[in-house]
Amino acid sequence: MKYFKYIILATIGSVFYSCDTDEFLNPLPDSSIVLDAFYETDNDVLAGIIGIYDAIQGVNENTTTNINNANRGVQFEYLLVEHRSDNTRSATLEGSKADFHRYLVEPNNVQSEDYYQSMYEVIFRANNMLNFIDVADEGNQARYSAEAKFLRAYAYFNLVRLFGDVPLVTSVVGPSDSELLFTRVPTSQIYQQIVSDLQEAINNLDNTYKSRASQAAAQGILAKVYLTQEERNYALAQQLCEAIINSGEFALQDNYSDVFYDELNDEIIFAIEYQAGNTQESQSFSSEFTSAIRQGREDGLNIIDNLSLIADFTVYGGNRTAASYITIGTSNECIKFLPEGSDITSIPPTYGSNARDAGNDWIILRYADVLLMHSEAILGGRTETSTGNGIDSYMAVKVRAGFDPVVDRPSSLTKDALLVERRVEFAYENQRFFDLVRFEVADPVLSAHAAEMGYGSYDARKLLLPIPAREINLSDGLLTQNPGY
């Protein structure tokens, strides 16, 4: 994160002890026991809160190559999400990263395990900081508590969508709490906790920050929760989206490319910051997305898989197409997150001096997503709607992409049109897989995709990732596995 030199706080070191629980979820060697005496001032508590974001940011793979020594945070997320959709794949079939797009992920997959561990690192750090809120200045206590709970909710929302039922831990635990640590809790119960945490965040945060928790970020993520959980709540999702829209604090960028290169712009609601050239604050995914002229440690890891994405860009992409991907030889590569100093117009293209230590922020929520969720909430699970304000939000995104506000305005917005609009708007942004699941079309779409691409290992059970084998082993079998693994 660019604006803080924060202390990396080890929550796990102070929580877990012997009997193998000290290995639960990969406590890292740079962690140290956090003593109660450390938290003496408001600044100490703030440092601890900022340390939670570090777990989301993760460690650059080029800084610490050994995956057992550092969690990657969101830097591996594209593998678990975008690669398991019909959007992108790895350029090679070698290594565990290539297993995601072919639906071959096993319980011992190191990237899936790392993401699981990273999200629990976020949760444990948040739980730990909630124990020290009363040390902070009285005027900051509610805000710090809300911020920690927002981050806990964010992590659990990711976990429950990718792994299903998972252990629900909302307090600091000790060596006698293995049942709590390893017992999977029904998804519905986890969603109750997520909703509660996000509601507290909405009530106690403002919109001061874009790279930290905010009221609008909590509203937007809670809207997506209401659109995702088994018992949909379209009315509340609509209200939350309208609260953000009516606030007047956010707006679409005029130039689509500026969304990604004019960082923390008016469209960004919540993003994780990175800093170019700083090995401790940079990310590696920007270099890994290159392929024809390889910049990363491995061959291109986010190239277009199914040409149906290119077909959708051709018809529906508008000016987003040229700002989303480029064809170099036979490789169709992402250009939303080019490392600083890149020049893809040169022959051959160049990628700056710090491609492997890139500073591109990772966008978690932006205003275009809120507008299209607003349309989705008004659609309300139906196949189409003629409601004007739902179409208005949809058209705002399309008009920014260069479509005509009158000629291209539909009299009725269909579910299929909204889904394809989300596909071309958010390609490479880890939205497509979750969209397919939320729109309840993941199985037919991915079945057809897998058949077309020759990925014979797909079946509907693969919509959930396996619980990491390492955690099941540490639990002595108390932690159970998802079906099909």
Description:
The protein is mainly α and 485 residues long. 41% of the residues lie in helices and 7% in strands. The protein contains 17 helices and twelve strands. It has helices spanning 42-57, 77-80, 110-130, 138-163, 178-182, 187-204, 215-228, 234-247, 258-261, 285-288, 308-317, 367-379, 388-400, 415-425, 432-438, 442-453, 469-474; strands spanning 88-89, 166-167, 184-185, 268-272, 303-304, 325-328, 331-334, 342-343, 350-351, 362-366, 384-385, 413-414. A hairpin with a 2-residue loop joins β6 (325-328) and β7. Residues 1-35 have low confidence and may be disordered.
Features:
single chain; 485 residues; mainly alpha; Serine Threonine Protein Phosphatase 5, Tetratricopeptide repeat; two-stranded antiparallel ribbon; two-stranded antiparallel sheet; disordered N terminus
Q: What is the strand and helix layout of this fold?
A:
Blueprint: H1 42-57, H2 77-80, E1 88-89, H3 110-130, H4 138-163, E2 166-167, H5 178-182, E3 184-185, H6 187-204, H7 215-228, H8 234-247, H9 258-261, E4 268-272, H10 285-288, E5 303-304, H11 308-317, E6 325-328, E7 331-334, E8 342-343, E9 350-351, E10 362-366, H12 367-379, E11 384-385, H13 388-400, E12 413-414, H14 415-425, H15 432-438, H16 442-453, H17 469-474
Antiparallel strand pairs: 1-5, 2-3, 4-10, 6-7, 8-9, 11-12
Task: Summarize the structure in short.
The chain is mostly helical and 485 residues long.
> For this structure, what is the CATH class of the largest domain?
Mainly Alpha
Low-confidence stretches: 1-35
Give the CATH architecture of the largest domain. Answer: Alpha Horseshoe
Summarize the amount of helix as a percent range.
40-55%
Number of helices: 17
Quaternary structure of the protein: single chain
Strand arrangement within the widest β-sheet reads 1-5
Q: SS-based structural class?
A: mainly alpha
Mean pLDDT: 91
Q: Strand-and-helix sequence, N→C?
A: HHEHHEHEHHHHEHEHEEEEEHEHEHHHH
